[in-house]
Amino acid sequence: MTDPWFDDAAGPVVRPYAMTRGRTRSSSDEARLDLIALVIAQSPDGEGDAKPQEDAAGSGQGDGGGAAVRPDGGSHRDADVISDSTLAPEHVDIVLRCRRAPQSVAELAAELDLPVGVVRVLVGDLIDSEWVRVSRPVPPAELPDESILREVIDGLRAL
C-alpha cells in the first residue's frame, strides 16, 4: 500500500487555479484591487449595505439589523449567501467575513490562507454579482516635478 502524499490534517486540497477557474483577473478588473482596499458586504438586491453582526456572545439582541442570531453564531440573513448556488465556498467565506466587519484584500488573503491574486479574482466575482463593494483607498498625492523642487530650493537659497 502506498502512502498518500498528504496526511489527514492537510484537509481537502484545492489548487488556487481551480478556485478561480483558471482566471488571473475577474471580468470587472478594470483596475487591480489594492491590498488595502476595503471589501464591504452588501445586499445583492442593492438595498443598502449589510450591517456588521454583533458577536454571538454579546448582548443577545441580534445584530441591530433585525436578524436573529443562530446557535452556531451566524444569523438567519446569512442563509441568503449560503444558499446561493452560484457562489463557491470561498466566495461565501469572504461575504460572511465582510458582514462582520469590512476587511482589506490583504486581511482576507491572510485569514483564508489564499494567495492575494486568488482573493482579488474572488472579490471581483463578488463585485460583479453585487455581494460586496470595494472602498478604494485615496491615492497618495502626486509628487511635484523635480524641476519645480529645484526652483524652490534655488529661490530659498537666493533669500
What can you tell me about this protein's structure?
The chain has 159 residues and is mainly alpha-helical. The chain has one domain. The chain contains 6 helices and 3 strands, in the order αβααβααβα. Strands 2-1-3 form a 3-stranded antiparallel β-sheet. Helix 4 (105-112) crosses helix 5 (116-128). The longest helix is centred in the last third of the chain and has 13 residues, at 116-128. Mean pLDDT is 73; it is low at 52-73.
Keyword list:
159 residues, mainly alpha, 3-stranded antiparallel β-sheet, 3 strands, 6% strand, elongated
Helix vs. strand class: mainly alpha
Instruction: Determine the N-to-C terminus distance.
Output: 86 Å
With strands numbered from the N-terminus, the spatial order across the biggest sheet is 2-1-3
Low-confidence stretches: 52-73
- How much is the average pLDDT? 73
Q: The biggest beta sheet, please?
A: 3 strands, antiparallel
Query: What is the C-alpha radius of gyration, as a whole number of Å?
Result: 22 Å
Large-scale geometry: elongated
Range of helix content: 25-40%
The total count of strands amounts to 3
Count of runs of 4 or more consecutive helical residues: 6
Task: Give the ordered list of helices and strands.
Answer: HEHHEHHEH
Total domain units: 1
